[in-house]
Amino acid sequence: MTIAVSPQALPALVLNADYRPLSYYPLSLWSWQDAIKAVFLDRVNIIAEYDQAVSSPSFSMRLPSVVCLKTYIKPSRHPAFTRFNVFLRDRFQCQYCGSRDDLTFDHVIPRCRGGETTWENVVAACSPCNLRKGSRLPKQAGMIPHQLPFQPTVQDLHNNGRQFPPNYLHESWLDYLYWDSELEP
Length: 185
What we know:
Layout: E1 12-15, E2 29-30, H1 32-40, E3 44-56, E4 59-69, H2 83-89, E5 103-107, E6 122-126, H3 127-133, H4 138-141, H5 154-161
Parallel strand pairs: 1-4
Antiparallel strand pairs: 1-2, 3-4, 5-6
């Protein structure tokens, strides 16, 4: 079957050479164009395919749905300090009230009191809690984080990411993804 395919449609799940996804959250996906390019550059093996194909006058190919890198990429041991990764570490929940809405950064020890913007001093906080705490220390505000801030490992973030499966999971991907069983689609 040959059809016109948009760049956003039919992404390929990208596995490391050990058949594990490069990342769970965000899920390691390539556009179909990047997957085909990697096939032609001999950087990946095709593990599974979609029914759809792309064609040129001299060539036709079914689109890869799962590809595996031929060379193992050693995962970073220390994830980058980013807003997204802080929220992922904290499971997208305010560390004071548990809300999942309107999340912001909160410096546990406020910057005006010498607190730094580091893994060990920043937690996810909803905007109302962040405003209520203000520039006070947690004990002064009566607001102790549910989980003390810490520098996560990549594995910590992968484990947390498994709790938030994406909205779309192609059936060919399921053998390579390990989500909490209660959350499987």
